[in-house]
Every structure is written in structure tokens, then in C-alpha cells.
Design goal:
Distance between the termini: 38 Å
Shape: globular
CATH architecture of one domain: Orthogonal Bundle
Largest sheet: 2 strands, antiparallel
Radius of gyration: 28 Å
Helix content: 55-70%
CATH class of one domain: Mainly Alpha
Length: 702
């Protein structure tokens, strides 16, 4: 039936390279910037400040403002609007002399002026404007567009190889003749966004392997890695420069492509060649996990701990201790397990591994109805691991256990703490629901009709990038910002946290929701393991603009239309779509589920029969949402309007849900959720409801 891809990495456009990102400090807003380029420098002004309005009348008011920054921003946007309306003379009037005062945007202004002349059919003035851009702003990436328009493509390629306009030009030449090795190499390095990118990699690898340098292989390997073609990535990394990261990816790529013997050999080669690297410690941990028995794992884990300690990789050392603890437990070695537990808590009390072990111990105590001991372990999590992804779950269950222990007041206090300390989590919604707040329950969510204010979204400023980039983004000129960012973003393999945030925001701006949401959400994963990223993320957690970015409203009108047609809560459907496809309308899963609501073709055909719908396309947003909402209504009707069961059925199918209802008691819905035996469905149910909770908080509250 409907298939859900619980982890973004299962889609073909995302790779797991973010696990190795470096760190940076986020600086929001720009300081006082002085500009001295050109004949008549403009007076300095601050580049942060109020974002411009969206309506033309409001922009005209801004254009008459005494505030120079408001005036310049409005004039630029009014010129853009004039060009969109095919009114080049109006655009030229708004742009007149603007580059002299709006200095950060001088190069984009000249491009707009040249475009206006083109619309007028005045090629002479357009050419003169491109030449002016080259003279005065020849190092700006916008110069690449000028060079191409002046019919100087080879110069553009030499100076701006990663500019999207240049990459697209090269791709056009390859369509005519794919056997141009320099062009193929350029696309391999800079053309990840091209639809035919994988084809070009295959041509290089299969036809011109003898002409490739180790650096070329590294670029090809990274491309395969990003496209999640791990076997090809591993083969290419084996020919790349032998850095610790590249050798690790040889092993990891082989492991992910189920070549266990090859993975073991690659990990061992990495450890032998670069024993003093964090990658060697991680490789040793991978080797331990590949061991077939707990007895075989223990000596490998001991080596991993040694490597991690000497290479100052505390997260890996903590993971090794947790695995060591589990191996001792499997062997029945209580003393060894206790000693390892003490070592983990003493050496790495704030690690993710320590949080995981504390949670295991809390659950074990609760199963024995040792409520005091279970709650003590939860208090340890909240003390040492308050930002762990396990913390809200542990705190919520502490409240459940307090209820079973006859502590109703403590239960209410604990659940209130969950809603305040972890307000964006699934467990905050459950706590608020059980506290009888008007946030919906498993059996009432479907019927709710929240009044949604979709115009609340405000932009989070970029964390890094040039003033020009930040201005383009603030002006919502997302496509132009994306093009410039492709030039400015030099550190793609190991980007800083600020670069990761910036890349995610810009991707969201151009509608790349799958990639953009992943980039932002991955910051939480990193923060749990890297203290500096936790510091970086702390102000973002409190900034509502960050949450608006994480929870956008694409296709809202279509979602509302078909949700109401099928008597569904529109925000609940939006939450489901966010989890299923990240709003990618033409995405296909590895098993064939297609479109926004990830419908299997055979399921869609059956739904279409019920609707007497003969002509439809699963990649058409309206068709997909129409079919998907019908099916979501159907799953609700099957389970007496219980959204928990409807979601489980949407993901895993009604047959599995029927089995679970026979095995597990639905009387306690929270225990039923924790009992779902499919990890994918367990995560899916919680994620969709967490999505709903965040949408409700952002858009539905007064």
C-alpha cells in the first residue's frame, strides 16, 4: 500500500555527508558596512533591518521613504516587478543610478538593467551594460552571466566554473557532444543540481577512466556519495587521494552496499595507514559492529576505545563503551557490564551514548515497577543530557510512571515541564493532550478545523555569505541568491554549521524542500554529539523564524481544498505530506511510492476506481493530494476515526495493524505506540504527529 520513507537518506538526492561536518559560530545580522567601490562612494548604512513588504503599493510607499535602505530595496523590487510585467521602461526608471547608492547590490542591479534593455530590444545598451559590469565588478559572480551574454564562454568557464549559468552552458554543450572530457570533469565537480548529473558521471567513469587524476576521482566519488550510489562511490574513493575521510568512505560505501568483506578490508587499511585519525576510531567501531558474536566484538571495541581516546574522539569512545556494555550483557557478564556502565557515566556523562544507556536502565526499572529507580534515571537524563532527543520521551514517561505510582500532582508538573522545555516535540503534544489542553487527541485530531494564518512566516537571516547574498535572500530573490551561493559555497564536503544553515535556508527558498529541511533538521543530530553545534543551535531553538523554515506550507490551498472535501484536518494532512515527501511533487521511493503523499501506483489505481477517476498523474500535486486524502479518510474510517491507527495503516498497511491490535492493548495509546514492532512505522506515527503539533503552534494559534 502506501510506503513511507522514514529517513530522508533513503531518497536518492541526499547523502549522509553531514555526519562529518565541521563547526562554526552563527552570527545573525550584518554590522555597519562601508562601501568604497566606484567613483562616488555612498554613505554607509546598516544592511540588516526590516524586510520589505510584498505588495507593490507598499513598495511604492517605501520608495518614497526617507530611509535610504528602505528606498533602495523598494526600488530594486519594483524594477523586478516591472520586468516580470514586461515593462522594461518602468524597470529602467526604478534602476536609474541605483547602483551608486545600493552598493552591495550593484552587480545584480546592472544585470537587471541589461535585462531591461534586452526586453526593449536595445541590444547595444544591453551589451554596454554587461561590459560596464565586467569593468567595475569583474570579480563578482554576476560577471559570469555578462561573459556568457557577451559570447565569451571559455572565459566564463575559466573564471567562474561553478556558477550555475556556466554549468548549464557546459551541460548544453555536452548534450550536443558528450565526449568532451574537460566539460565532463567540470560537471562532475559543480553540476550536482543537473538532472542528468549521474549520466555524466557514468560517461567519465566508463569511457575516460585513464584520463582521470586522483582529484577527479575524488569529485566523482563525492557526486556518487551525494546521490547515494554507494558501491560506485566506494570504487571512486579508492582511486582518490588517500585521506582518512576518503578511505573511510571506501569502507562505509562498501558496507552500505552490502560488501561486508570489502568493507572490513577497507576499514583495516584505513586503520593501518592513519591510526591517529578520528576516522580510524570510527572504522574500528564499524569493525566491531560487523563482528558476528559479542565475544568477537569485545576485543575490537577495546581497540576502538584506545583509538578514540588517543585521537580525542569522545563521542566515538562513548559509543564504544555503550556497545561494550551491551556485549557484556549478552554474554551474561554482569560485573563487566557494571564496570563499563560506571566508566561511561564517569568519563562521558553528557554523551548521547550515556543518555541512551540511562534510558535503557529507566525502562528496565519501570518494567519491574521500580518507579523510584526509573524516575531517578530520568532525572539523570534531564540533568546530564537535557538536549538529547531521548530527554522529552524520558520526561513524558516519567509522568506516566508517576501516575502509576499514585503521584498525580507530580505527573501534572512533569507533563507541564515537557510542554515548556521541549515545546516542539511529539511528547509535548501528548503531554498537553493528557493535561486536557485544547490541542486534540488521537481520536479528535481528524475533526479539528484550525483557522490557519499562512502569512505569519518571516525569514530567518542567513548565517553567512556576502552582503549581496544576504540582500538577495532578504528581498526574496531566492533564485538569484541560490545562483550566487553556488559560487560562494566553496566548502561542500565539510561545510561549517553556519554554511549548513545558510545552504538549507537558500534551498528552501527555491523550493528544494527535501534537501533544505534535511540540512536544517540535521543540526539537531549534530548538536546532540558536538557541544559547539549545541551552542550554535541554542539561539535558533528560540527563534520562531527557524521553526517557520522547518515547517513551511507549500501547496496549502490544494491541501486545504481536498482535506475539507474528505472531511480531514488540513494541518494533519500537511503534517503527513511533510513526512512522506518533504513536498517534492515528483519524488519516487525505492519501492515506487510516488508524489507528495507517496502513493503506490496500484493503491492509486484502486482509489481512482472508487472515485471514477480515469485520467490522473501521481506527479501532479492536485491529483496526488486528491487521491491521498481520499485514502487517509479511508484509513480513518477503518479505525473509528483514530488518527494513531489511521497513520499506522497508511504506512504499514491494514494487515499489520490488525495483527498489532491483536497483540497489543490499544487501551493505553502511548504504550501501543511504543509497542509498534516496525521501527519505520513507530517513527512515522510520532513524526507525523510532531509535524502536526508544530504546524498547529506556528499557524493555528491566535
Amino acid at each position: 500500500m502506501v510506503q513511507f520513507l522514514s529517513k530522508v537518506k533513503r531518497y536518492q538526492r541526499i547523502g549522509p555527508w553531514l555526519l562529518s561536518l565541521l563547526l562554526a559560530t552563527l552570527v545573525l545580522g550584518a554590522g555597519l558596512v562601508k562601501w568604497h567601490h566606484g567613483r562616488s562612494p555612498a554613505p554607509p548604512y546598516r544592511l540588516n533591518g526590516e524586510a520589505p513588504p510584498k505588495s507593490v503599493p507598499a513598495l511604492v510607499q517605501w520608495a518614497r521613504s526617507g530611509d535610504p535602505l528602505k528606498r533602495d530595496r523598494a526600488r530594486y523590487l519594483l524594477a523586478v516587478d516591472s520586468l516580470r510585467r514586461n515593462q522594461p521602461q518602468g524597470a529602467l526608471q526604478w534602476l536609474e543610478g541605483l547602483e551608486q547608492t545600493y552598493r552591495p547590490m550593484a552587480a545584480p542591479i546592472l544585470l537587471l538593467r541589461a535585462k531591461a534593455y534586452q526586453q526593449q530590444g536595445d541590444d547595444r545598451k544591453a551589451k554596454a551594460t554587461w561590459q560596464q559590469l565586467l569593468r567595475e565588478y569583474g570579480t563578482a559572480p554576476e560577471a559570469a552571466v555578462a561573459l556568457l551574454n557577451l559570447n565569451r564562454p571559455e572565459e566564463a568557464i575559466a573564471r567562474f566554473p561553478q556558477h550555475p549559468a556556466v554549468v548549464n552552458y557546459v551541460a548544453q554543450q555536452l548534450e550536443k557532444n558528450p565526449d568532451q572530457v574537460p566539460y565532463l570533469k567540470l560537471v562532475a565537480r559543480h553540476g550536482l543540481f543537473l538532472q542528468a548529473y549521474g549520466t555524466y558521471l557514468e560517461i567519465l567513469r566508463q569511457r575516460y577512466a585513464d584520463q582521470l587524476t586522483p582529484a577527479d576521482w575524488e569529485a566523482i566519488a563525492f557526486g556518487y556519495w551525494e546521490k547515494m550510489q554507494y558501491a560506485s562511490a566506494a570504487a571512486a574513493y579508492a582511486k582518490a587521494p588517500p585521506t582518512p575521510l576518503n578511505l573511510y568512505r571506501v569502507g562505509r560505501g562498501r558496507q552500505l552496499s552490502e560488501d561486508t568483506a570489502g568493507a572490513i578490508a577497507a576499514y583495516q587499511a584505513l586503520i593501518q595507514r592513519f591510526p591517529n585519525s578520528s576516522e580510524a576510531a570510527l572504522a574500528q567501531l564499524r569493525l566491531a559492529h560487523l563482528a558476528k558474536t559479542p565475544a568477537a566484538r569485545l576485543p575490537l571495541l577495546a581497540k576502538c576505545l584506545q583509538f578514540a581516546t588517543q585521537n580525542q574522539a569522545p563521542a566515538i569512545a562513548a559509543d564504544a563503551l555503550l556497545a561494550q556494555y551491551q556485549a557484556y550483557r549478552e554474554l551474561g557478564n554482569t560485573k563487566g557490564a557494571q564496570q563499563t556502565q560506571q566508566q561511561l557515566f564517569k568519563a562521558y556523562p553528557q554523551s548521547s551514548a550515556a543518555a541512551e544507556l540511562r534510558w535503557q536502565l529507566a525502562q528496565g526499572a519501570a518494567q519491574k515497577r521500580q518507579w523510584s529507580q526509573a524516575q531517578q534515571w530520568v532525572r539523570e537524563i534531564l540533568k546530564f543530557n537535557p538536549e538529547s532527543e531521548l530527554a522529552p520521551q524520558a520526561a513524558f514517561w516519567q509522568g506516566k510512571w508517576q501516575g502509576e505510582a499514585g503521584q498525580p500532582q507530580g505527573q501534572r508538573q512533569t507533563w507541564q515541564l515537557v510542554t515548556e522545555r521541549y515545546p516542539h516535540t511529539y511528547y509535548a503534544w501528548r503531554a498537553a493532550s493528557l493535561l486536557k489542553k485544547p490541542v486534540g487527541t488521537f481520536t479528535t485530531l481528524r475533526q479539528q478545523r484550525p483557522s490557519v494564518a499562512g502569512d505569519r512566516q518571516t525569514l530567518l537571516p542567513l548565517a553567512t555569505g556576502s552582503p549581496t547574498l544576504q540582500e538577495l535572500y532578504l528581498l526574496r530573490q531566492f533564485q538569484e541568491a541560490w545562483q550566487r551561493w553556488q559560487w560562494e559555497f566553496q566548502n561542500r564536503v565539510t561545510p561549517t554549521a553556519a554554511e549548513q544553515l545558510t545552504d538549507g535556508l537558500i534551498r528552501l527558498g527555491v523550493g528544494e524542500y527535501l534537501d533544505g529541511i534535511f540540512m536544517l533538521q540535521n543540526l539537531f543530530t549534530r548538536a546532540a554529539r558536538e557541544p559547539q553545534v549545541a551552542t550554535f543551535l541554542a539561539p535558533l531553538r528560540r527563534d520562531v523564524r527557524f521553526w517557520y523554515a522547518l515547517y513551511p506550507l507549500p501547496y496549502w490551498e490544494l491541501v486545504k481544498k481536498w482535506s475539507l472535501t474528505h472531511n480531514l484536518n488540513p494541518l494533519l494532512v500537511m503534517a503527513l505530506i511533510r513526512q512522506e515527501s518533504r513536498f517534492e511533487k515528483d519524488i519516487r521511493s525505492v519501492v515506487g511510492a510516488t508524489g507528495l503523499m507517496q502513493l503506490m501506483p496500484e493503491t492509486a489505481a484502486w482509489i481512482a476506481e472508487q472515485l471514477n477517476l480515469e485520467d490522473y498523474s501521481l506527479v501532479d500535486p492536485e491529483h496526488n493530494i486528491r487521491l491521498g486524502t481520499w485514502y487517509f479518510d479511508y484509513t480513518h474510517n477503518q479505525y473509528n476515526q483514530n488518527t494513531l491507527l489511521a497513520l499506522a495503516s497508511y504506512n504499514a498497511g491494514p494487515g499489520n495493524v490488525s495483527q498489532w491490535l491483536e497483540r497489543f492493548d490499544i487501551g493505553d495509546s502511548d504504550r501501543f505506540v511504543e509497542s509498534i514492532p516496525f521501527p519505520e512505522t513507530y517513527g512515522y506515527v510520532k513524526s507525523v504527529l510532531e509535524n502536526y503539533w508544530n504546524y498547529w503552534q506556528l499557524y493555528a494559534q491566535p
